[in-house]
Amino acid sequence: MLYPDTVEAEVLVHKPWFVATMFGVGLYGRFAIGFAIAVIFTLNVVLIGFAPLKLQIGIVWLELLLLFIAFFETFHLSLPFIREKLPFLISQGVVTTLYVSAISIVIASVIAVAGAVAKLSSNGFAYAIASFYTSFFRGLPLLMQVYLIYLGLPQLGFVINAVPAGILALSLCYGAYMTEIFRSGIQSIDRGQWEASRSMGFGFALTMRRIILPQALPVIIPPTGNQFISMLKDSSLVSVIGVWELMFLARTLGQKTFQHMEMLISAAMIYWVLSICLELIQSRIERHYARSKVR
Amino acid sequence: MSVQAIIEAKAVSKWYGQFHALKDINLTVHKGERIVICGPSGSGKSTLIRCFNRLEAHQEGDIVINGIALHGKMNNVAAVRSNVGMVFQHFNLFPHMTVLMNCMAGPMWVKGVSAAEARKTALQFLERVRIPEQANKFPVQLSGGQQQRVAIARSLCMKPDVMLFDEPTSALDPEMVSEVLETMTGLARDGMTMVCVTHEMGFARAVADRVIFMDAGQIVEEGTPDEFFARPRHARTKLFLSQILKH
């Protein structure tokens, strides 16, 4: 041990200059970190500002994605567990989700065209049925429709399996929303198009198929794309009647070992990827229909 | 007259709700005749020609097109319509199709003509309205005058017996009016039966066999252009002509 001085005033940590330096360095340290973060952040934004638009979008996407990954990192997810369960989650869950959604989308679109035509017709019965239908199925929570169809139809003697019940509920619900989208799209087409078609002797079906719908599609597609994405995710509601789709498996697979977050986050990512695919398809179709608008 | 009548309207009346839009209209259009209908706005002239292919329904009287009576329960309205060409004020081309396809659609889908045949006819009529080089463009890429000429070609492709023109130059910029009128004059020279609603009095003078003046849903006066412009009989006609020829 070194020789300790007996004079208290010599104790280093009590010397004003030492205390001041400590405080200063500490303050400077917080400041330096803050400064560094501020510089990095600002530089990041400024530099991205120089990049061409496409690159800008890409970089910002990537950075936000990294932030999200950092967020998920705080859950300390067990990757081996995810890796073990993922194949089943996809082969059973995703496949079921996809085919339930795909079939529902097709049926909903058919219902929507018929519903839109009925809502625009001057036939009282057709209008009444279509408006009652859209009002009813837009007015009830989808979850309730799923239950009503699965548990209610057997009352009428139709015992129906979970998957068809789910498809029926999704189709009817989204058919109702899309009826309104299609109706407004068809109505957005100028009367002159009908008159020109009629004046050349086109019948109703021909005019609709070749003249009106092709022009209404660019108007219809963006909101319909929304509906498709929304339906993909709402297909998770059919898990309540025991369909082994993505959401159902996400909830059940992690239960035994209390690894809920692993499966829920995996499922969330899968839903997201599927939605991105739909978004890409939508934007591609939109570009296709923008052709006749170029000058 | 022994010439075949293409349009026969007898005592035609039409109401929009309470509003009496056409009052006791009698008009016969013979084959090869060129008729110009003029009159103040709201006088029923567009309504009248839109009744000739039943874009509008009349409530009283008879309209007979090429021997076929138009009424609410007819099941051959497409046959009549494909025989009566119509050109609209706002062109009403199909914007999602090329110019060529606009012209091919009618013959192919209504008359069942083959694509090759329809294409040949379309190019021939586009040639005739002098825009064959625009065949593969979309309507929005064309000027107003060109669009209206395409609309005329589109109607001609159906090989109609009569052409109806509903203010074909009213939506055009002034410098494009003449190219459309020239096309119409050319048609008239080739003997097409035409009924034109128009305010182009120069065209009426040069082309029309008969000028019809309508006001408040009635035919007020009709006559040859010479009579009509030089010696109008009715006060309403005189007033209209003085208004329209003042400039």
What does this structure look like?
The complex is a heterodimer of chains A (295) and B (247). By secondary structure, chain A is mostly helical. Chain A has two domains: 12-73, no CATH class; 79-293, Orthogonal Bundle (MetI-like fold). Chain A contains ten helices and no strands. Chain A has helices spanning 16-50, 53-73, 79-120, 124-139, 142-152, 162-187, 191-199, 204-234, 246-253, 260-289. Chain A is elongated, with a radius of gyration of 30 Å. The N and C termini of chain A lie far apart (90 Å). With 247 residues, chain B is an alpha/beta fold. Chain B contains nine helices and ten strands. In chain B, strands 6-7-8-3-9-10 form a six-stranded mixed sheet, sandwiched between helices. In chain B, strand 1 (5-16) and strand 2 form a beta hairpin. Chain B is globular and about 55 Å long. The mean pLDDT of chain B is 91. The A-B interface holds A 190, 192-193, 195-196, 198-203, 206, 210-211, 214-215, 291-295 and B 53, 55, 77-82, 84-86, 88, 90, 92-97, 105-106, 109-110, 138, 140-141, 154-155, 158. Chain B: Belongs to the ABC transporter superfamily. Chain B: Residues 7-241 form the ABC transporter domain. Chain B: This is Amino acid ABC transporter ATP-binding protein. Chain B: It holds the Pfam family ABC_tran. Chain B: Keywords: ATP-binding, Nucleotide-binding, Transport.
Question: Which key features would you list for this structure?
Answer:
heterodimer, A: 295 residues, mainly alpha, MetI-like fold, 2 domains, B: 247 residues, alpha/beta, six-stranded mixed β-sheet, four-stranded antiparallel β-sheet
